[in-house]
Automatic annotation (TrEMBL):
Residues 390-471 form the Prophage endopeptidase tail N-terminal domain. It comes from Faecalicatena faecalis. It holds the Pfam family Prophage_tailD1. This is Phage tail protein. Residues 473-716 form the Tail spike domain. InterPro entries: Phage_tail_spike_N (IPR007119), Prophage_tail_N (IPR044051), Tail_dom (IPR010572).
Amino acid sequence: MALKNILNTQDAFTGEFPAAWAPDGLWRFNESEPDADDYLADSSGKDRKAYIHNWSGTTADMKTGNFGRYFQMNINNPSSEKTYLKVENDGSIFSSLGETIVVGGWMKPTTYSVGNTYTPILNTRYGSGQPIFYLSLIRGKPRIMLYNSSGSLILDTSVTPSFSLLNGYWYFIACVIKPNAKTAQYILGDKSSGTVWQSSVLTFTGELNRSCVADLIWGMHADSYWYAGGFDDWFLDCDSDLTADDLAEYFLESLSANGADLTGDVDALTTPDVVTLRATDSVYPSSGQLITAARDCGVTGNGRVSVKADYSPGETSISLVETATSDDLSTWTEWQAVGANGELESPAKKYIKYRVTLSTTNTARTPTLTSISLYDNPKPLYTKLGYARPVILDSDGNVEAVLDNAYDIIVTSEINGVDELEFKLPFQDSKRAYIDNEKTVRIVSDTYRIRTITDDKEESGKAITTVYAEAAFYDLAYSVKKDEITFNADTADVPMAYALQGTDWDVGTVNVSTKRTWTCSEKNALAILRAVQNIHGGDLIFDNANRIVKLLTFSGEDSGVLFCYKKNMKSIQRVIDTTSLITRLYAYGKDGMTFASINGGNEYVQDTTYTSEIRIATLDCSNFTNPYQMLEYANMRLADYASPRISYVLKAMDLSVLTGYEHETWALGDTVMVKDDDLNLSVKTRIVRREYNLQEPWNTVLELSTTLRELGDSSSRWDSAADTLESTDLIDSQEMKDLVPFNHLRNSRADSGLSYWQNSGFTVDADNGVSGTASFKCEGALNTTKSLSQTITPANRQCYTFSAQIASENLSKGTNGQVGIEVTFEYEDGTTETRFIDLI
């Protein structure tokens, strides 16, 4: 999958002139006011600050404008205000002239500026030394003046654009000067209409002044001529690779971007290179839409959009991503939401722009958008595994070589397990040179990373290269270290999204609906994803080509394929294994928590359907904090352990590679029928592992229903504490009973009725309690919230413990119903944070 473009810089979100294009000066004018000495910053890194002459007592101001703020001057009476900007030349500004000088920016002229005979824009006719250029307007038309080292004019020409400059409108104006080619050219863009115009190429004779040490002056000449209006985002590069076409394209690409609009709900200026919701008095809006600048698209296959953002699970999110495409930066398609897995649904055209909706349910928090990437997944050279060959890709995802002479090509893959590739190649093969560690190999549409290369020379003198490669998702094991985090009654997509933050992978379809409250201490993305699958259930599917992770209740389909002897099955082995049979399963959660109070007093679950013999093991659920969810999880695990492991191992042929048998296709995870009269076998089961021989599809090995340990069960590789049958160190139950905690809550047992509590819908049951004689009671109702609350002022501590015992007999929750404890923390600075502890 080739990366076509990535938007991860401020200019991509705001439409500002790219900093990389302005190494000799970049004046954004984004400050709310100048510094104490009346200077405005230079963003080029050269610290060429612009001094405001006559800032105080005039109409000079930093106004909200096109790209954040802009500098405005001389609005009332230019001849009396006499405001202008000056960048002092220390002698270095023009010291290294290359083939091309580009200079320009945005301006918002007034009637005074477009109506005067002579209106200076930017000149170098001030200070010591001779000038090099002078940009101005003459009766509203752009004028360019160039000078030689003696100060004589070598070019003085005005140009007539295809449109007229008007009062109060924004225009992009730039000039491309080529000292060696002796040419100059103007570019002018009208933001209101989206029209861009290029002048003819102007020529001059003589030598441009390469020794200019004059200052840069905006808006003034000779203390007699003035500019009135606004300036924004001006730039200078004295050794540029840009052309007039590049600058015209920049203008058109920038028109859509809104990340610097200070009146909008998104903010791409406060923090460099990221986008957030725009806060007002520390309160964020519930949502906001970012529209980016346009960029090259260039997708030739199946495009995919990937958005990277930091967010708080369950509170902030990137709720919608849309695209529009164009061939001319003028006519655009309608906005189209990307697919569930980031698929580009807009038609493939030359240019693309994005509209991204940032959302929050907590106005004290905002998602932080860091990048938008567009990938191209070209049509694979092969469409089926049978007879396919390994394809070596370069770093951009383009085809480097097809290994036609590869042999013993085996792809081994399991449901929720390994995905690996091995093949051999003659060492003397001319394409051996393309094989290198960490390079990408494509098999049909799947991608693998080469990990091991072994070169052998046999006794016969034959030299062979053996390659071992791992699926692209294995790299998630090397992701940035993850902090411990607790998920509260969240569906699987929330921890999956957390796992993939900071990677170039995205969450795809998740239709597993279980909710879990648990603490995740895994340190890398892959370990977290494996833990999520163990805790929530389902099939974890890695789309390596598109870098998408899915969690599906069932990943395959009922293929209708029949495997039988002498048709497509060469051999079959059935194994019935009870070595891991468990009928009673104890479970212990965080701090020794059990589910006995909601399970008839039993700390275990039991299933004696297969045998009445009690075979005991312990399930470590130490990352669970909710007994209801732990009970559900224990029952799910016992269903796996309480019956024999029955496995079928087939040597089978993939008939779908043969003409006329294309319908006999099957895939990992599919349900198939296996029939053999000699073994009295007729069973419908599932493909859970395969060793596919690409060169010899008739020698493919399948494992059905349950993976045999001796045939490569990979569970040891993906160990998770939540799925390990082992004993756990527990606090002794008597020690727990003897522990008397300090309670900040007053009247927590309802001994004094409803005293100290704010009540909405609760009553007191004076006859039934647990640690006392009374308790609080509530009868729920659909679409109704009932609460019991109390405010406490505890001492400052690192952590607090909340505990409650509830009776939940005959409780039935609605679709969005919740039962739990909501805690609102108020910090010393006055900010608040709310968390919900789900109890059921």
